[in-house]
Description:
Layout: E1 2-10, E2 16-21, E3 26-31, E4 45-51, E5 59-67, H1 75-91, H2 101-115, H3 118-132, E6 152-156, E7 160-162, H4 164-167, E8 172-173, H5 174-183, H6 191-201
Parallel strand pairs: 3-5
Antiparallel strand pairs: 1-2, 1-4, 2-3, 4-5, 6-7, 6-8
Helix pairs in contact: 2-3, 3-6
Amino acid sequence: MQGYILNYHKVADEDLIVTILGRDKIYTGYRFYGVRHSTINIGKKIDFELQSNYKSSIDRLKDVIDIGFSWFDDSSKVYCWQNFIKLFYAHFYDVESIDGFYSSLLDECVVKITRQNPKRAILETYIKLLQHEGRISFDDECLLCGLAMTDDISLVRGFKQTHESCSYEKSIDRDAVRELLENSSTIMLSDKQCDRLWQVLMQGL
């Protein structure tokens, strides 16, 4: 099996409980500590096996092989990627079965980060996630006050649209917002605007 490490936490004697996003399931495995074991890091894609044990309700995670990314030695890209992946852990909390869309989405994002600014690649990936979940639209009314939107729009968590005066978030040109939400493209956004939207994204999926 293959999947992305969403989270891990230490238990007794440096052992780990590891959460993995697989093709159609969220897996939880118990990882025994050992010097020969490959490093477990959030965001890594791994090939792995799970071994059941009648003495435990959690399967043993074994035969872990790291499927490396070409950019995993670039700290700025890894920082963005790991922070994005952490959001998936909260998004799928208490969920077991998932749509294969999410694994494919992350595979696509890994490729985009290879050749693109990581924040732009991840923002565009996030829009595709919202589209898949039916949580995105280009609205004519402000989420907070219900009045008509003007030429400039601010985006809040979930990339919902508001007036700048309502959310106190810096506004973005309406055409740039439409291009982002409808075409999953950051081409009309400046780097500063991408940085602002990155902070909005970090509030949660």
